[in-house]
Specification:
Layout (H helix, E strand, L loop, with lengths): L21 E7 L3 E8 L8 E12 L2 E8 L5 H26 L1
Antiparallel strand pairs: 1-2, 2-3, 3-4
Length: 101
């Protein structure tokens, strides 16, 4: 399996100029990347850390990528974030397909 080089950036939608910070919490070569994002831009909610873990594994001649997210401070934000991340993964898949076909 090819080495994975991950660059994680995050810019909250609707919050231009809001700095984005992350802290890697776990990493294993070619297998797992975990990172913490500080959620400090939600009005009326105390800042907190949010964990995302990305697992990458060989699957024959393909690569399987699974992104696991901790729940956010409420269900509506969690569902919106899940949809956003799902869209990012769909875009990644489409980009890879364009380059390999």
């Amino acid at each position: 399996m090819a080495r994975l080089r991950a660059v994680v950036t995050s810019h909250p939608v609707g919050f231009p100029g809001s700095p984005s910070r992350g802290q890697r919490s776990a990493a294993m070569a070619n297998a797992r990347l975990g990172y913490l994002s500080r959620i400090d831009f939600v009005p009326g909610t105390d800042p907190y850390e949010h964990l995302t873990v990305v697992d990458v594994e060989a699957a024959g001649d393909r690569t399987r990528l699974v992104m696991t997210i901790d729940p956010l401070h409420d269900e509506a934000w969690t569902q919106e974030y899940r949809a956003h991340r799902g869209n990012e993964l769909d875009n990644l898949e489409a980009s890879i397909r364009r380059r390999t076909t």
